[in-house]
Design brief:
With 140 residues, the chain is of the alpha+beta class. The protein has one domain. The chain has two helices and eight strands, in the order αββββββββα. It has helices at residues 6-19, 124-136, and strands spanning 23-26, 29-32, 37-46, 50-59, 64-74, 77-83, 100-102, 111-113. Strands 1, 2, 3, 4, 5, 6, 7 and 8 form an eight-stranded antiparallel sheet that branches.
């Protein structure tokens, strides 16, 4: 799915709780911060004390994400996070460069490719599905 225009992206963001029954609440807000830039900030809460903390910098003219940070918390502890920081010294991440996921053990230094993450399409549906599949399916 290509990155949508602003009205369609707002509809996607604000409609997430209607499309994913696993979402208990969302505080996501898209706010304009310049002539062509907007930021998305907030949290999506799930059952089992799972939180997805979201920050995106979106280029509205180019219809793409310029930067992001997605952090997943379980019971208040950081479980994983995604970022596009370039790790040129880690060849294992080349397949999804620069997108990657930090996971345990040693969450700060243990990085794996993030094949569902992109600057070119919305990432939140993928992240929500991953949370449902990996964290919530065991206690459904």
């Amino acid at each position: 799915m290509p990155f949508p225009d602003r009205p369609a992206y707002e509809e996607l963001l604000y409609g997430l709780p209607e499309h994913f029954a696993s979402i208990q609440s969302s505080t996501l807000v898209l706010a304009t911060i310049g002539p062509t830039l907007a930021k998305v900030e907030g949290q999506i809460s799930f059952r089992e004390n799972i939180i997805l903390d979201v920050w995106e910098l979106v280029d509205l003219d180019e219809r793409r994400i310029r930067n992001y940070s997605y952090e997943i918390y379980r019971a208040g502890k950081k479980f994983a996070w995604y970022d596009p920081f370039e790790h040129l010294d880690v060849p294992e991440l080349a397949s999804t460069f620069p997108h990657h996921k930090h996971i345990e053990p040693d969450i700060k230094h243990h990085r794996v490719p993030a094949p569902g993450i992109s600057f070119e399409h919305p990432n939140l549906p993928f992240l929500i599905q991953e949370i449902e599949r990996t964290l919530l399916s065991r206690s459904a």
